[in-house]
Design brief:
The chain is of the alpha/beta class and about 250 residues long. It has one domain: 3-Layer(aba) Sandwich (Rossmann fold), CATH 3.40.50.1360. The protein is about 25% helix and about 20% strand. It has seven helices and ten strands. A six-stranded parallel sheet has the order 1-10-9-5-2-3, covered by helices on one side. Strands 4, 6, 7 and 8 form a four-stranded antiparallel sheet that branches. α1 packs across α2. It is globular, with a radius of gyration of 17 Å. The N and C termini lie close together (about 10 Å). It binds 6-phosphogluconic acid (6PG).
């Protein structure tokens, strides 16, 4: 059985997973928009979120979203230009942003085109600080964070064994990812753990082994990056398809 504090939604297939996740996202955003003028949301890269973005941009959901209140940020980015096929911004632009009436000034992409990854991370942290205007020592509180899970247990660009997992000060970091032989820009673990709501999206058989780690006990002894996402006051929901959930029933 999965850990009691973790809610899991198991859909029949990828399409139904994306539909159910989109419904959840819309409800979450409309709820917050009824009490706040700005609803900051973190988007993820990856194939599963892509399906959710397409749903959100589709006729069923598009008209229900208060786009002018939604403010889009990213959980991680590759060091590429914003029109590069591997850019997480590009993915969201193609599937969502270019298809919905969100004001362009509500879109805060990670400057992956910067030659120096540390500078790109610092610049993005400043973008976040300008938006949240925190008091000293305060962390940003996103209303909603969307994350994927890699088969190795990574989430955003927080990979197993990386020293960035211990980060306690910076909001944005530029870790070197040995297995990819490249730098990534990523929000740090505390940022995810201060969010009001975090949803993970994972589909396909290749995720079944890692999703198995959600089982009670395994999660309490968290060791994989995705397991370390445990929002202090927020809710955590996993949207899975049957293939990814085959060992957790
Ligand atoms: C990225 C990510 C990454 C992703 C997972 C799962 O840009 O690659 O943000 O953390 O979400 O690797 O990706 P898939 O859904 O494609 O398997």
């Amino acid at each position: 059985m999965p850990d009691k504090k973790i809610k899991t939604v198991i859909a029949d297939d990828l399409e139904s997973l994306c539909e159910q996740a989109a419904e959840f996202v819309v409800r979450c955003i409309t709820d917050r928009a009824s009490v706040e003028s700005r609803v900051p949301v973190v988007l993820s890269g990856g194939t599963t979120p892509k399906g959710v973005y397409e749903q959100l941009a589709g006729e069923n959901f598009k008209r229900r979203v208060p786009w002018n209140r939604m403010h889009l940020f990213w959980g991680d980015e590759r060091l590429v230009s914003p029109d590069h096929p591997e850019s997480n911004y590009f993915l969201a632009y193609e599937t969502l942003i270019s298809r919905v009436p969100i004001p362009r000034e509500n879109v805060y992409r990670i400057p992956g085109e910067k030659a120096d990854p540390e500078k790109a991370a610092d610049e993005y942290e400043q973008t976040l600080r300008d938006f949240f205007r925190p008091s000293r020592g305060e962390w940003p509180v996103f209303d909603l964070v969307l994350l994927g899970i890699g088969a190795d247990g990574h989430t955003a660009s927080l990979f197993p064994g990386s020293s960035v997992l211990q980060e306690k000060k910076r909001w944005v970091a530029a870790p070197y990812v040995e297995k990819l032989k490249s730098y990534r820009i990523t929000l740090t673990m505390p940022v995810f753990n201060y969010a009001r709501q975090v949803i993970f999206l994972a589909a396909g058989e290749e995720k079944a082994q890692v999703v198995k780690e959600l089982q009670a006990g395994n999660h309490t002894r968290a060791r994989l990056p995705f397991q370390l996402v445990q929002p202090h006051d927020g809710r955590l929901v996993f949207f899975l398809d049957k293939a990814a959930a085959r060992f957790i029933g």
